[in-house]
Amino acid sequence: MGRVVLVTGVARDLGRRFARQIAASPAVDRVIGVDVQPPRGDLGGVSFVRADIRNPIIAKVIMREHVDTVVHMSVLPSAGSSSRTAAKELNVIGTMQLLAACQQSPDLEHFVLKSSTSVYGSSNRDPAMFSEDMNAKHGFGVGFVKDINEVESYVRGFARRRPDVRVTTLRTANALGAGLSTPTTGYFKLPVIPTVLGFDPRMQFLNDTDLLDAIEHATLADIRGTFNIAGAGVMMLSQAIRRLGRPALPLPSFAVGAVGSAMRQARMADFSREQIAFLAYGRGVDTTRMREVLGFKPSRTTEQAFGEFAASLSPGLISERRVRAAEEALVGALGGRNQIGELDG
Amino acid sequence: MGDAEIIPIGTRGKPGRGTGSAKPSSSARGLVAKPAAKRAPRTKTPSAATPDGAAPDGAAPDVEPAETPAPASSRDATIPAPRQPLHQQVPPVAGAHPEPTVGIPAVDWLAGFTTAAVEVFGDNWEPRLAAFLAFLRRRLTGDYTVDEYGFDAEITQRFFMTAIRPVAEKWFRIEVRGVENIPPTGGALVVSNHSGTIPIDGMMTAISIHDHAHRFLRPLGADLVFKLPVVSELARKGGVTLACNDDAERMLRGGEIVGVWPEGFKGIGKPYSERYKLQRFGRGGFVSAAIRTGVPIIPTSVVGAEEIYPLVGNIPSLARLLGVPYIPITPFFPLLGPLGLIPLPSKWIIEFGEPIRTDEYDEGAAEDPMLVFNVTDQVRETIQQTLYSLLMQRKSVFG
């Protein structure tokens, strides 16, 4: 008999795609997708339950369907449309209710939380690479950082109360993908990219298919614990913006807040306080445990994930093609006979 | 004091000898001839003043328009000419007849540019210029890699190091001793004294290790470094990371040469009178990091950095207000403004001492506070003694 998987947050792109992917797995019999809103795309063989995880109905669904695996994917930063308090309500209270429902269910064996590397926050006191046993250096921060820390602590509490349930937490880096719509992709899609003046943060990215594969791996493999999930290597924000060929707009940190709130109103990108801290100080996570304990290796490095994402966008003003053309013209005009490609590296 | 009388003293801004009278004396009138002469006719007889007043007024508008359009038109004529050869339109312009009205023909610009390239890159300028342009293109399109600490080896080697090399070689005339103590491969912990108000000694140690031992020094910086705009960006790219045990051990395990200045702000911010006296060496965290990773500690003594900005004063209240450890006052700063930021050209000696091995200690040694304190003291004493002997050998501060 195969597994019965309940996936929360299927209205969002990543949740819906994950639900479809796990439904195709031979080890899984049934997949039930839960969300407040109906999903925008095709759910395939996934049965959809329109329910709020803050509602006790979710407990009935888990009991009646004999759900043995819960994949909690609806912990998300507040999007431009919803307010902070609404996001906090959904993230923290939603998780509490879901865990309460899970605790009553005798059939439950696995619980997978899709967390985020945002849990570490961003500050000038951060080590270069966070490993799983470290905490945010600036207290538990504000906004989404605080939410996700609370969510993780509730999940740890659940793991203590139900030791028979295998609990796995995946702290995933920012996902990038061609069709993906998240605050991060929204930021990089801006025609002129605002940055914090005088700071160049380190960033890690994860290809969206790698993210889904990692959650599938964690769902099906019987490994408990907390794992950082990110593509290998880091990129500087300035480097990423140059690869997009878009102009950067360095603003003093207080001005980023003002510009950001205007953009937030226009639903263009997310510039919350924790996001501005991230744009100033960046973050890197250590992925040794992901490779050695979880046994998962992303197919793309940070640079490859970003490269694929950049290729899916229309090239910016200072695209590589134009820079190359200008260089060739200049070398040509000066009578250089050298092949430009030979000089790389 | 009720019957005190105010006695007018001084002129209250009026020309005169301080008599208090409204009318200036005749000699004083002579001193301020022009405005007095101008004002006087206007108030008395307007008819007589008009030819006098109109002449300067009329002259000014005549002069101004005559001057302003002239540079504007000449700029209009010359500026497009130099711009053209820089763009892709060079071959057609160079081949076709250059317009006679244009200031300098494009061919001349091209010839001038070629001569300049020969000047800068030497005779073999073509491939070197092409390589430089390729470098520029790689930077512009983000086609380079940084390591997980944000260290950008290319820009460090080709830009930062090139920029500070003349300072190290010509200004401070750094003499490097004991380079053989820096291992050619594998991790090592360079522990050095800290001085000089601004951590220039760190940069100089880094370039000395790069030029003489051909390895990159990876300094550990205080959290303040990563809080300051621009400084934080340059520091990460130059290979600095946060001074914490996690980062230090991670880098040492990765086989890097890590630089640490355990005196911290106590060292660079100490007054000139306490020069070459080592301050407390933190909590010895660097020793436990070295013991855990089993890398050698290289005690490094820097002589000369104390004299670059002699710190004679501090404004603690302002420093607290700004959230920085100290506000330096040197004999030239802030007295001479930006000029006071030029470091004094003291003669530097950097000596890398004999490595102190830590791989012989067993596993739990890093947790033994007594052992850690002993090793810390050993490192501190070695540096202090080397400093004294180097000071004895140095002929003079600027020699």
TrEMBL record, chain A:
It comes from the Bacteria. Residues 5-181 form the NAD-dependent epimerase/dehydratase domain. This is NAD-dependent epimerase/dehydratase family protein. PANTHER family: BIFUNCTIONAL POLYMYXIN RESISTANCE PROTEIN ARNA, NAD-DEPENDENT EPIMERASE_DEHYDRATASE. It comes from Nocardioides marmoriginsengisoli.
Automatic annotation (TrEMBL), chain B:
One of its GO terms (cellular component) is membrane. Residues 188-305 form the Phospholipid/glycerol acyltransferase domain. Keywords: Acyltransferase, Transferase. SMART domains: PlsC. Residues 1-99 are annotated as: Disordered. Residues 43-67 have a biased composition (Low complexity). GO terms for molecular function: acyltransferase activity. Pfam families: Acyltransferase (PF01553). PANTHER family: MONOACYLGLYCEROL_DIACYLGLYCEROL O-ACYLTRANSFERASE, TRANSMEMBRANE PROTEIN 68. This is Glycerol acyltransferase. It comes from Nocardioides marmoriginsengisoli.
